[in-house]
Every structure is written in structure tokens, then in C-alpha cells.
Sequence to fold (804 residues):
Amino acid sequence: MSAPASTPPPAPSSPPPSSSSLGAALADFRANLRYDLPASLVVFLVAVPLSLGIAVASDAPLTAGLIAAAIGGIVAGTLGGSALQVSGPAAGLTVIVADLVNRFGWGVTCAITVAAGLLQLVFGFSKAGRAALAISPAVVHGMLAGIGVTIVLGQLHVVLGGEQQDDAIANVLALPGQLISVHGPAATLGLAVIAILLAWPRLPRSVPAWIQGIPAPLLAVTLLTVVASVLMLPVERVEVGGSVLDAIALPVLPTSDLGGVIVGVFTVAIIASIESLLSAVAVDKLRPGQTSNLDRELVGQGAGNTLSGLLGGLPITGVIVRSSTNAAAGARSRTSAVLHGVWIVVFSVALLGLVQQIPMAVLAGLLVHIGAKLVNIAHMRELHRHGELPIYVVTILGVVFVDLLTGVLIGLGLALLMVLRRVVWASIEVQEPSSGQGTWHVVVEGALCFLSVPRLSRRLARIPEGADVVVDLVTDYLDHAAFDHLSEWEDRHRLSGGSVRVDEVGTMGLVARREATAGGPGDRRPGPVPRFLAPWSVWQAGHDATYGEGWGHGHRSSEPCDDGCGGASGADPILTGLREYHRRAAGLVAPYLSDLADGQAPHAWFLTCSDSRVVPNVLTSSGPGDLFTVRNVGNLAPLGGRGDDSVGATVEYALDALHVPTLVVCGHSGCGAMQAVLRSDGGFDGALGRWLEGASESLSRFRSGHPVGEHAGAAVASEVDRLAMVNVAVQLDRLARHPGVATAVEEGRVRLVGLFFDIATARMSVLDGDRFVPASTDRLGAGTRSGAELDHRVSSATTFPVSG
Fold:
């Protein structure tokens, strides 16, 4: 008797999935260990001096830096979402922590770190990881640069053998006096550290690789500590104040100023989260194919900060310096970050006495170098190109001369204002005729709304009465106030004897008129397509009401048009199109054509019909230099024996001279040539008739039931369209029989592709075996092995409904 349905079947004898997963994990660990182990040692050597220096800059116990480094490696490395990111105390939090220590004391600062870690856990579990990336990069980079400037201004005094002041302004004012009274041994050591850090990456290639591989911070700190000890220089040295184990203590709960404590918690949590997430994204770029789990990374950072605060450590973040070092050293997995934390624990317990030999000026020199690197010239250039440099500068000034939170808030406020300005602010330019007489041009670009009406009014007031005016309206938004103002100005100008023609290049003039006609705003139907995709009849004035009426008056066909307005009496649409090309497109396409001036290397030979509705570059989203296009009536390929070698010549030139990898034949719906072939049924007259004899084979195969025509589906495709599809397959067969093409296909140098364009729906399909499938499918392959048998490898192809 069979077991009841509710009784599970006996378990197989193979190991359970958990055992299998554990075995795979162990195998990966062993495979990666030979890369991760040496990488962890390199990161450890970089992390120790950096952690000590950041503790000094934060006014925290030196042991707090080592505790945070160890926990950042072990805890955040294990739980975080970025495999190669290394966490620990970061320069980006030094100003914040120093302020918290001065205000609340070290014990309360540790409690703030714990609370910030718990808040980060909330961020991670609530899937808020990517939300932090919405903050403007200009603000983030400005914040880091402001912290860097603050560190440099303060630590320069220590490098020179003096004491840093209470704030940035005091540091700036005291710096000249400090330079005058430089303290010899300390200044020598500090400046020597900076010199080594600057020179080490620029060592000549003749230096052995193992020497170049020594971390510069470790070399500088070790070398100059030894020099100071050997020479017994009278300089201030690091005071640890006990072992790391003695430094572990529970945090102290605050008893006053709870508002300030709460602000500190949110500040540490948000800044640490943003810096960690940005670092994780940057590390992903160092190792293509790797993607961090940002929510898990927040969980790892939160757990690390919670434990670091409980044990008396500094706040931690993901640190790009250590993470990039980890990636460059060849790390493969998170094991490297975890091991680096283990080495720090060993060092902190067994070798802490060595730390007390380090001169303070040496650590200060290291911090000056770190701070200076936070001011990134490349970031400044990039932000300048995007017009966001003011945000960066304002954020720096706020962080340096006020405080970090205020600086960030000021930067965010300016970023929002600049975004608002871009959204609601239009560029309005009035161009006076060079000769003093002629047509005035008003160019309006961007979003034109009520905020721009006063400026628009001032610009338009410059135009004298009776002048001829062309308004280029390149707008992506136009509100009712701006619409009314332009309409009223146009009426007044016409009454003064002038003429106005509105050239609507953008999409919102049409919408504005619809709103005015309908009596209400809110019509968000699609506006006209860009002119390079639109027919002349749509955008050249005088053809229809859509573009020819301006603001309700527009250009009349009886009015003179001396600047190629198009559509008006006597205007040539070709010349108008050429003028439009030179006005708007030539400058955009010139850089690409300049690169192609010395030759072409097209990606495809493209045979299609002469039909004016088929535009190959539009259908393939291609540009200059991409397609070697051949056009004729019916997209025929008579490659021999018919007295016309034009197609064959282009094929041979494409294969032998241009080495194109793809040959394409593209048919289309409603083809007039195919209609003529069906009507004549093979009996042709005249030059066109003799040419269409090249389609006799297509007609014969269609009549005999070619599978392409069968699969097209009589219910959804007309007879003409099914013949056009068969014709594409037949022309591909002809191409495949061409000796040069056959050899190239056999050698894998060329693929054949058949396309069909349905004009009514603007949809393209691709010939796959014996049927056409939508070109939009994600799994289209790329090539054929022979003739019309296209190897597109679409496993679930369906018949393409040509009629839509």
C-alpha cells in the first residue's frame, strides 16, 4: 500500500543541502586563501598607522583607533555586503568625533557610537541603502574635502612642532607665526613624512617591484620612528596610556544636553552610512562584475559601530583607502578584511609598546597627507563640467568655518536651489541683426514658467516696434502665465507693424495651445517628436495648424519668408531642412564626422527598399559611419546574370574593402514593388518591369508555399506583406550563394540578417528560421550559418503579428 499523500517521501542518501553549501563554502575559502592572506597583511600594514593617526585627530585614546580597526575588519567584514570593502576608523568622521569628545567626553561619545550603530541597523533592515545615494555627490565630496581642509589646518601646527588651535579660523590666523617659529626636530620629521608619502608613488620603474609594494604610510612611520629613536630627538611621542585590553570599557549614558546627543547620533549614523555606501560603490568599480548589497552593508556597518562603541572604539565606516589597497593587493573575498582585523588584534596585544615610540609630528604628517588627498582635483573638474562646483565650494566653506552638519545642510540647500533653478528657469537670448536691419531672433530654451516672465518681458522690450521677429521656442515646459505673456506680446508687436513667427522646436508649445483651446491645463499627451525624427510636413510651417500658427497667428503663406521658414509659398523644404541642420544639428554631429573624416568602418551592409518611409539609421538607432546602405526598388539582390552589378559591387566592396561583419536585407509592409509583382504575376514591362523580374523567384516561392509566408499568418498579414517577407528570405538565399559571401559565412566572418519593418506600427521584426519574431525580444541571437537559416537561437519564438 502506498503511503498517505501527506507523508513525505524518504530522504535521499545524498548529503543535505546545508552540508553541500558548507562544503562549497569551504572549497571557495581554500581556493581564495592564497590571494586573501597576503592581501590581508598588506591592508594591516596600511591600517595600523592610519588608525593611530585618526585617533589622534579625533582627540580620542589611541587604543580606540586600534579597537575600531579590529572590529571594522572582523565584524563589518563578516556581515557587510561588499566582499572587498575594508572598514575601520575614517578621516571623514574625525571632525565630528573630536567635537563630540570635547562636548560630552569620551564615554558619552562611545554611547553615541552605539546608538548610531543601532540606527544603521534600522537603515539596513528597512532597505534604505540606496536612498542614501540620492544625496548630491557635490555635497558628499565637499563634506569630505571640508574635513580634509580642517585636518590639514589643524595638523600643520603639530607638524611644525606647535599646538593646533580651537577652530579653523584660529588655525589660519596662527599659521604665519607658526611658520616663523618652526621647531626644528619635530618639523623635520613631519615634513619628511609628507615628502616620503608624496615621492613613494613616483618611484622610477627601475626600482624593484617588492620595494615599490611596501605601503608608503608604513614605511614613513617606521623609518622616521627609528630615526627619532636612534638619534634620541627631543620630540613629543605617542602616549597610549595602557594596553588595549585595559582600554575596553562600557560607554557612559548622557545626563544632560539630550538634544545635542540625539543630533550627534543622527550625524554619525548618516555620515558613516553615506561614506560606507559610496566607498562600496567605488570598490565595485575597481572589480568589474562585483555588485555590493548596500542594505547588507549598512547592517554590517551598524553591527560594527554598535560593538565598537560598547568596547570603547571609534566609529567605523567603509574606508576607500584600505578597500582600494585590498583590491589592488589581489584579494578575492571578505576573508582578507577579516584577517586584517585579526592581525590588528595580535599587534594591539603583543606589540603596543612599539606604538609609544612614534613621534606625534610623524602621525601629524601622515594626517596632513590624508587630509590633503580628501580635496580631490579630479572631483572638482568633474563637478565644474556639470555646473555643480558652487555646491562643492559652499559645502567646504560651511564645514571648515562653521561645523560639519551646518556645512552639509548648506550644501544640500544650495543643491536643491540649483535643481529648482534648472527645472523652472529658462534661457532667454535676444539676437539683434548684425546689420541693424533684418530679422531679430529670440531663443527661449528650457522650462518657461511664471518665474521667468519678468526676465522675458525685459528681453522682449529690447526689440523695436515694427521689426521682423522669429521666436525659437525650444521649451520642455511652458506654463499658462508664460503662454499668456508671449501671446499678448505677439499681438502688441503685430499691431505696431511688426511680424512674428514662432518656431516651436520643443514639445510644449503645442501642449500650451491645446490647454488654451480646451480651457484648462493638465493635457500631458505626447508632444511632437524631435525634428530629426519628424517629417517635414510636421515641423515646417504652413503645412498644418500644428506647427504653422505660432501663438494663434503665426506665419501666413502670403507673408515673405527670407530665412527658410519652410512650407510657405516659394519656400523649398529641402533648403529649409538644410538650414535647420546647420542651425541645430551640424555642431552636434561634427565631432563624430571629424573622427570619420579619414575613412569609414561600418558595422553592416544594409540593403533596403527605396521607400521614403523606411529610414535605416532611425530604425537601427545608428549614426554616421555605422551602416553601408544600399537602396533599390523592392530591396532586391540580383547578384549576377541580369545586367545590373550595382548590388554585387557594393557587396564585394563591403566584404573586401570595409570588412563588414553583417549583411542585412530589410523589407517592409505595404511595399509598392511587391504589389506590382503580384498584379503583374511575372509579366513585366519597361525599365521598372525588367528590374522587378528580380522578384520572380520570390513570387514563385510564395506561390508554392514558402514557410516564411505561411508562418506570417493570413489572418494578420496581407498577401503583399507575406510576399515581402518571403522576398527577404529569398534575397538572403541569393546573398548566401555569392562566392565571397559563402566563404565569409563559412569562416565565421559574416552573418546574414533578415528584417521586416511594419510601417503602421513602427515595429521591426527579425527573420528567425522560417518566421519573423519581434526585434524587441531580449534573447535574439546574432548571426546565421547559412543562407536564410538565421541562427538567432530564440528558444520561444512566436509569429510576429505584422499588423500590430
Notes: Residues 425-560 form a domain with the Transcription Regulator spoIIAA fold (CATH 3.30.750.24). The radius of gyration is 36 Å.
